[in-house]
Amino acid sequence: ALDVVNALRDDGVLISTTGANEDSLKVRPPLVCQAEHVDLFLAAMERALVKVAG
């Protein structure tokens, strides 16, 4: 999960890990979240997963 967190941070998305083994992602969107924000997050997540997968 840490590799994904770092890739997302490189893309401007603030996210963290959680769980006993730090193996889960903690997404905390702003209180005001619009569809455009979700689209940006999902695009960044896709890029991060592709980057981490190699």
Account of the 3D structure:
By secondary structure, this protein is mainly alpha-helical. The chain has one domain. It is 52% helix and 11% strand. The chain has 2 helices and 2 strands, in the order αββα. The chain has helices at 2-10, 35-53; strands spanning 16-18, 24-26. It has a two-stranded antiparallel ribbon. A hairpin with a 5-residue loop joins strand 1 and strand 2. The longest helix has 19 residues, at 35-53. The mean pLDDT is 94.
In the predicted model, the low-confidence regions spanning at least 5 consecutive residues are none
Tell me the number of structural domains: 1
Provide the β-strand percentage band.
5-15%
- Output the structural class: mainly alpha
Tell me roughly what share of residues is in helical segments.
40-55%
Radius of gyration: 11 Å
Main sheet properties: 2 strands, antiparallel
Layout: helices, strands, pairs:
Blueprint: H1 2-10, E1 16-18, E2 24-26, H2 35-53
Antiparallel strand pairs: 1-2
Helix pairs in contact: 1-2
Keywords, please?
54 residues, mainly alpha, single chain
Q: Short summary of the structure?
A:
Helices cover 52% and strands 11% of the residues. The protein has 54 residues and is mostly helical.
